[in-house]
Amino acid sequence: MSSTSSDTARCGTCGHEARIEMHRSVNANHHELREALLSGELMTHRCPSCGEVSELDYPLLYHDMARQYLVYLVSPRYAPDKAALERGLPSEADTRSYLEIGPYRFRVVRSLAELVEKIRIFDAGLDDRAIEWVKAVSTTRAANPAGEGNDGQASPRSPAVESASFQRVVDRPDGSRLLAFQPVLRLDEAPELAGLPFTLFWPMAVYEETARSLDVHLPLEAPFNGQWHLVDADFLRARLPNLPKLPKPSSAPTESGSGHAPESIRQRPPSRGPVETSSKGGARSAPGIPPQMKTALLAAGVVFCGIASIATWRAMPNPTAAILLASLGVFLAVNLARSFREGG
Fold first, then answer.
1. Of 254, 265, 275, 341, which has the most beta carbons under 10 Å away?
2. CA angle 292, 296, 298 (to 5 degrees)
3. CA-CA-CA-CA dihedral for 33, 36, 40, 46, to nearest 10
């Protein structure tokens, strides 16, 4: 069940005091409270005197009975260090009562944004350990701004990713799946990119491989575990400093209302030769003619056209017709060379 309490809050702008309702626990079955929590509305207060909107900060427990997980929000204001955090967690007797129902997961977060992200991760049926590791790797990669014709490739002007937040799983028309993250970019060297929408994508296969590795090296949900875990990048680095490295992710602009992932995003299979991304989306095979073969074909075409022109010139009694045929041979040679250059 969801529970509430009331308290007095003072507006930081005008000093007006008002009674506020604080939701100490939220059950996922209460859909209105859940949606208000995900949107941030549940943890905000509008001053009735001046209209100033302030964020509320208090401990909150989120409980999803169907998916069997609990996430406890305790900000640094209420638990500035690890010892204080551990003292404020629900007791072992409380967790044991949940474990009698099923294999519950118990997580601690330090901000509302982290709470919302955990809900998104678990509601998507994902492993938060693997998601946190993908995020940690993403902070060393580059992302691209949104824009027409963006091909999803890193460039020297692409700002670095400072942090990332999991958003959703994207099902593509071709049956593949991607993990979509909202990155926070470091715009020190490219301030003109501020305000542009970005989305960072990882192939689902990368996540699945990481999750399998973590199941072996870092099991958390052992039967009757009942421990609260603050699973973030620091948690993983402290316990598994030698985690396998992940391949480079794809980054691309946020899709514009199409309901599908951008077609410019595709994991490149190493065994199928080069793949290039078209400006209209999708992937197509790149021309596969080696440069040596192109040169040989071009030389053969030029020689053939030259021989044909000379032979025609000497064989035809009419000089005007011979000149026209020789010009045609030169024209064909020039166009052959142009077609090879544009196709290369």
1. 265
2. 115
3. -100
The alpha carbons of the chain give a radius of gyration, in whole angstroms, of 31
Residue-level pLDDT at 279: 30
Q: Give per-residue pLDDT as tens, 20-70.
A: 889 999 999 999 999 999 999 999 989 999 989 988 999 999 999 999 999
> Are the C-beta atoms of 131 and 166 separated by less than 8 Å?
yes
**Rounded Cα–Cα distance for residues 226 and 103 (Å):** 9
Q: Are 201 and 178 in contact (CB under 8 A)?
A: yes
Is the pLDDT at 198 greater than 60? The verdict is yes
Digit-coded pLDDT (tens) for 214-249: 888 888 887 667 889 999 988 888 888 765 565 555
130-167 pLDDT, tens digit per residue, is: 999 888 887 755 444 333 333 444 444 456 778 889 99
Please tell me whether the overall predicted TM-score, pTM, comes out greater than 0.85 for this model: no
Show the tokens assigned to 136. Answer: 């940690």
* DSSP per residue, 66-110: TTTEEEEE--TTT--SHHHHHHHSPPHHHHHHHHTTS--EEEEES
* Residues in contact with 21: Cβ distance below 8 Å, sequence separation at least 6, in sequence order: 4, 5, 6
Task: Quote the mean pLDDT of the chain.
Answer: 74
DSSP, collapsed to helix, strand or coil, labels residue 62 as strand
Query: What distance in Å separates the CA atoms of residue 88 and residue 76, rounded to the nearest whole number?
Result: 12
Q: What does the alpha-carbon distance between residue 252 and residue 158 come to, in Å, rounded to a whole number?
A: 11
Q: What is the Cα–Cα distance from 161 to 252, expressed in whole angstroms?
A: 13
Number of residues that this document lists for the chain: 344
Count CA atoms closer than 13 A to 122's CA, side-chain side: 22
Kindly give the interhelix angle for 128-138 and 204-217, rounded to the nearest 10 degrees. Answer: 120
Domain spans, the chain: 1-123, 124-268, 291-343
